[in-house]
Specification:
Number of strands: 0
Shape: elongated
Helix content: 55-70%
Organism: Jannaschia pohangensis
Keywords: Membrane, Transmembrane, Transmembrane helix
Largest sheet: none
Oligomer: single chain
InterPro entries: YgaP-like_TM
Radius of gyration: 14 Å
Protein name: SPW repeat-containing protein
Amino acid sequence: MTANLGTVDRALRAILGLLLVAAPFVSGFALFASTAATVVSVVVGIVLLATSAMRFCPLYRVLGIQTCKI
């Protein structure tokens, strides 16, 4: 896997991922009273954190996007 995420993209993904994983448990929003919304939020957050950690996004590869400088 060739890296295709730049530093800013990685940082934004990591921050958003952490927020999505934590939100259902600490926010108290009525939206997260639903189990489905909680699961979706946590799964999307984990995917964002994983892509940030690996510096690789499969969707970017398919679309031909590369935000890192080679």
